[in-house]
Amino acid sequence: MLPLLSDTAAPTCAKEGGSWCQQVWNITHNEWLATSGIWAVEKPLRILFIVVVAFVVRWLIRRVIDRVTTIPRGGGKLPALLRPLRERAPDMLGPIVVERRRQRAKTIGSVLKSLASFLVYGTAFVLVLSEIGLNIGPLIASAGIVGVALGFGAQNLVKDFLSGMFMMIEDQYGVGDVVDVGEASGTVESVGLRITTLRDINGTVWYVRNGEVVRVGNSSQGFAVAVVDVPLSYSADVDRATEVLGETATAAVAQEPLSANVLEPPEVLGVESVTPEGIQLRLTIKVRPGKQWTVQRALRGKLIAALEDAGFEPPLGRFFTGGPAAN
Length: 327
Hints:
Elements: H1 20-28, H2 31-69, H3 94-132, H4 136-153, H5 155-170, E1 178-180, E2 185-191, E3 195-199, E4 205-209, E5 217-218, E6 224-232, H6 238-253, E7 267-274, E8 279-287, H7 292-309
Antiparallel strand pairs: 1-2, 1-5, 2-3, 3-4, 6-8, 7-8
C-alpha cells in the first residue's frame, strides 16, 4: 500500500515560522503543495497585487492632475496648477485668455500624466520582475544604455519637448498672442510641446519647432504702444503742427471705438526724422495688447485729415500746386 501524502515528512520550508509553505503544510500536509505553493499561489497573488496597486495609484494621480488642470465652470478662474506660475495675459479679452489657459493647463497636465504613468508602471514592472526572481541589475543597465542611445538619436525631439515645456511653464506666449519668432510671425493658434502654430497676416499657417525658437517678440503682453509717424513739408510750422496733432489725437481717443483700447493719453514726441522729402512728427499712445495696429490705422487717417484742414501741405505738395518748383 502506497503511503499517504499526509504521511510524508515536513519540508524544510515548513519550519519557517509564518511562511506560506508552513501554512499550506499545516492545512494539507502535502509536501508538493507546500513546496510549490509559493509559485502556484503566493507569487501570482503578489504580482496581481502589484498590478492592481499600480492601476489604482495611476488612476488616483490622473484624477488629481485633472482636478488641478481643469478650468472651473465660467472660465474666468485660473486652474489650480497654474496659480503658482506667472500669468502674462492679464489684459487680454475673456474668450482668448480662457482658451490660452485651457491649452496651457491641458499641455502641462498631459506631460504630468505621461510622467506619472511612466513612473508608476515602470516601478510595477521592476517589482514584478523581482518577484519572478530575475536579476534586474543587467536589465536596468541595458535599459540605461538604450536610453542614452535613443537620447543621442533623438536630440532634436528632446530639445523640442524641453523647450515647449519651459515655454508653457513661463507663459512666454499663448493662444491669441501676436509674436515674432524669427523666420515667422503672426497670431498664435496653438501651442504644443513640440510645435507652435502661427498664422501670419496673409493667412499662411506656420508650424515652428519649439527647439528652433531662439528668441520671441511678443506684442500682446501687458500693453502695447501705437506709434504714428506723420509727414510734413519743410515749410510747415512744427509747433503749430504738434499742437494740431495733440488736440486731434486726444479728441479721437476719447470717443468709441478707440477709447476702449487706449490706456493713457496720446503723447506727441516731436520731430522723429528729416528726409529729403520732408520731416516726420511722431505720436505714441499706450494701448491694450494687440490693439496697436487698429489704433494706428484709425489715428493716421484722422491726423492727416486734420493737418490738411489746418492748411498744412504734404511733403511733396510743392511739386503739384504750381509752386516755385513747378516753374
